[in-house]
Amino acid sequence: MSPVQMLLATLADLARSRGAEDLAEYLDLAGVTAGATQDDKAAFAKLTAEIQTMIDADRDPTPEELTSVRDRRAELSKKIRDL
Amino acid sequence: MTAIRYVNFLWISVLAVTIAACVLDPFKTAETPAQRGYALEASYNIVLEDALEIASAPTTTAQVRDAIKAAEARSTPVIDSLSDALADYEIERAKFEAGQSNAERLTIVSGNLAGWVESAKQTLISFQAAFRN
Q: B52 vs A48: CB contact, 8 Å cut-off?
């Protein structure tokens, strides 16, 4: 766990103990990207740019984009299960 | 004393949101239900790539590999359900725009998608924690 992730996890616990569930969840999600490797950070940045492009074009993901992300998940999932 | 604690908590909250804002881009950027669903699905793939890399490494112990496989087996069905809900939403929205559905039906499908987005968020957090901690 990186120092930033540890800090976010601590703050999420604190927020949860004060009943601030929404904030806690937000911080937990932040921990996902904070714990990313350098390669992952580039992938998250690319994904962010992709979503920003959708927003700029005032559109949602296309059926092809949804199929592509689903196929990739199935491929990765199978590889892990076959290990 | 309670007031001081409350102010401290507020400051901590501001600090926390500031830190989170620096690292939470895909979720923060998405605006529509479909974009949020897509952001979660694609983020799951990024984390899944990591899981595969770690699980495949020759130095990884069987215990860690089994833990990753178990976490993946629990997580992927939830993300698949999100994906199904997203597809249903897109179909219903297209029907609505073509005048072949009504607002009530679209609200039901949209609520279903929102529910799966929430479940998928927790799944993503748990899955990541299973092999990065």
A: no
Cβ pairs A/B, distance under 8 A:
148
Mutate to test the interface with A, among B8, B35, B92 (most CBs of A within 10 A): B35
Element (H, E) at B116: helix B103-132
Please check whether residue A7 is in contact with residue B19, taking contact to mean a CB–CB distance below 8 angstroms.
yes
- Closest residue in B to A62 (Cα) is B90
pLDDT tens for B66-119 read 988 998 999 999 999 999 999 999 899 999 999 998 999 999 999 999 899 888
Please report residues of A whose CB lies closer than 8 A to that of B23: 4, 30, 33-34
Q: Can you give the length of chain B in residues?
A: 133
Say if A75 is an interface residue toward chain B (CB within 8 Å).
no
A12 Cβ partners below 8 Å, 6+ apart? Answer: A23, A24, A25, A27, A28, A31, B16
Over the stretch A29-78, which tens digit does the pLDDT of each residue have?
666 666 566 677 788 888 989 999 999 999 999 989 999 999 999 999 99
Q: How far apart are CA B48 and CA A4, in angstroms?
A: 21
Q: What is the DSSP string of B59-101?
A: TS-HHHHHHHHHHHHHHHHHHHHHHHHHHHHHHHHHHHHTTSS
Interface residue A42 vs chain B (CB under 8 A): no
d(CA B117, CA B40): 8
